[in-house]
């Protein structure tokens, strides 16, 4: 937690209060902060800044001298279409994509997505994972997350409307590498949409359908990475 | 597991056997492979290739027609000096760095490394995590892993001998970004050594000592990432 994000209703004039148990615990036990200390805070959907601790109670912390003058970092001009992964890795993937600044996330069904993944109670907790990601990445603007339980209608009816310039699909068995693809693009712009499979990747039918709708298959070399690692390796190109 | 790596003693002429319980379970229950099916295999420290299943017993699988003609992908010309992280994330970090092809890994003490981390039983299981990483990344050559429990003597006496060209240390509060650093380097070579902190990063003293021994501090933008995410984002530059 590199900043503490509070909803707008927790602010009043130049004071604010922390009443989320995880955040209160973080201030007390991880930061070990005391009355008079300055905290890095932010307003969800608003600015970043600082505030000073006025009072620490068992379940809430009162802040004063709230200063919110720093605009959050720009979002990446990027939509990530991710095959819904195992619930175990969903939390970290949402956190990481949020911390990286992805603007739009589409969780889509795929052949290798087990049906049970769509029943996972973790899908009800996406807001929580987004908050963790924002507090990690020091941002206040949540990504838009959409669930698409049907692959074919999504690709055929919706996908192309999401692409503002180029689109790619990560595929270890593609003929072209991501860097070859980028060298061919004379605009030097990064793609605005990236499709990434879950464990086991996309099947040939899915690659063909995505390719038919404007997504160029690209690989990142002979090494096959875990979904989490692949997401960070690929999206790192937008940061660096 | 994108290939099954076996130690040299499991091979004999053009046959081989799988007798590791995790690997046997993977073939039976994840791949659902049967007698006559071809598996992607490799010899630890040797080549990659294929073999055909001859027989499946409760605790071992016999292979024939072993063909090991594919050389493993080149290692990255890279040493990663990583502040020893929490045991919980150590496994994934070792797996990912191995899958990415890092040649040398140094786990070093840092101010924010808790003493208890050095007592973790997971440090006895690094070979297991390396094997997982190799089988994920489809490689056969393990990275060299060194433990350095004392930060100052390591930096002062050993670090410079590990640097063959440039070295950097990842630091969110550095003045220069990684991409600015790369643009300044007229050789266009990537650094051969990267230092990455654990949760909470390096303290100023550590940054100063690393800088005094040839490591340029660089940031990757305003967003602060989890150690795992930062490792993959940074090292992705060597893949892409």
TrEMBL record, chains A, B:
Keywords: Cytoplasm, Methyltransferase, rRNA processing, S-adenosyl-L-methionine, Transferase. Specifically methylates the N3 position of the uracil ring of uridine 1498 (m3U1498) in 16S rRNA. Acts on the fully assembled 30S ribosomal subunit. GO terms for molecular function: rRNA (uridine-N3-)-methyltransferase activity. It catalyses: uridine(1498) in 16S rRNA + S-adenosyl-L-methionine = N(3)-methyluridine(1498) in 16S rRNA + S-adenosyl-L-homocysteine + H(+). Belongs to the RNA methyltransferase RsmE family. The keyword Acetylation does not apply. One of its GO terms (biological process) is rRNA base methylation. Residues 74-236 form the Ribosomal RNA small subunit methyltransferase E methyltransferase domain. The keyword Lipid biosynthesis does not apply. It is an enzyme of class 2 (transferase). NCBIfam families: PRK11713.5-2, PRK11713.5-4, RsmE family RNA methyltransferase. InterPro entries: Alpha/beta_knot_MTases (IPR029028), RsmE (IPR006700), RsmE_MTase_dom (IPR046886), tRNA_m1G_MTases_N (IPR029026). One of its GO terms (cellular component) is cytoplasm. It is found in: Cytoplasm. PANTHER family: 16S RRNA (URACIL(1498)-N(3))-METHYLTRANSFERASE (PTHR30027:SF3), RIBOSOMAL RNA SMALL SUBUNIT METHYLTRANSFERASE E (PTHR30027). Pfam families: Methyltrans_RNA. Gene3D superfamilies: 3.40.1280.10. This is Ribosomal RNA small subunit methyltransferase E. Its EC number is 2.1.1.193.
